[in-house]
Amino acid sequence: MKKVLTYGTFDLLHEGHINLLRRARELGDYLIVGLSNDQFNKIKNKETYFPFRSRKTILESIKFVDCVIEESNWEQKTLDVQKFDIDVFVMGDDWTGKFDFLKDYCEVVYLPRTEGISTTQIKRDLYKKVHA
Ligand code: C2G
After folding, report:
1. One-letter-per-residue 3-state SS of 57-117
2. Strand order in the sheet with 3-8
3. Best probe residue, ligand 1, of 13, 15, 20 (max atoms within 8 Å of C-beta)
4. By the number of CB atoms within 10 A of the CB, which of 22, 49, 66, 98 ranks highest?
5. Cα–Cα distance for residue pair 103/122, rounded to 1 Å
């Protein structure tokens, strides 16, 4: 079984996230998602609308996702790749090059981001609507 691993915050889930998860899953037979917990999002300077528990429930309901694990630090990836016997590590190409150190353990694939959508954009657009 070819196992794929990716990480993210996946707040205010949108089509860009789904496109990433679908393409990641298509690179293998089983997709594990390392979901950033609330403490790690503070380290990433990311304010989330939904707490970890809700974001986990939402992710687990997606047909492309087979398992959700917790992401709590920058250092866990190498361990996770070995622990879960990962064949392919996938991230959006805004991360190109950042995780090449994992090439010693598995294939590393950076997929083109979906243009024109982001959680930040959603928040900005909603703010404008409410304050127009
Ligand atoms: N993404 C995408 N297209 C978008 C928005 C996001 O392909 N329009 C991808 C990102 O490149 C990432 C994944 O969806 O691979 C999740 O995005 P975020 O939740 O923003 O994740 P991020 O904050 O980049 O966290 O250790 C890695 C980090 O946890 C990644």
Report:
1. HHHHCCCCCCEEEEECCCCHHHHHHHHCCCCEEEEEHHHCCCCHHHHHCCEEEEECCCCCC
2. 67-71, 30-36, 3-8, 88-92, 107-111
3. 20
4. 66
5. 34
For ligand 1, is residue 71 a contact (CB within 6 Å)?
yes
Give the separation between CA 70 and CA 7, rounded to whole angstroms: 9
Determine the structural domain holding residue 98 and report its residue range: 3-131
DSSP code at position 50? S
Q: What CATH code is carried by the domain that includes residue 36?
A: 3.40.50.620
- 42 is a catalytic site residue: no
**How many angstroms does the Cα of residue 113 sit away from the middle of ligand 1?**
8
Query: Could you report the per-residue pLDDT of 57-107, keeping only the tens digit for each?
Result: 999 999 999 999 999 999 999 999 999 999 999 999 999 999 999 999 999
**From 2, 3, 42, 46, active-site residue:** 46
Q: Work out how many domains the chain is built from and give that number.
A: 1
Nearest alpha carbon, ligand 1 atom 14: 17
Q: What is the pTM of this model?
A: 0.97
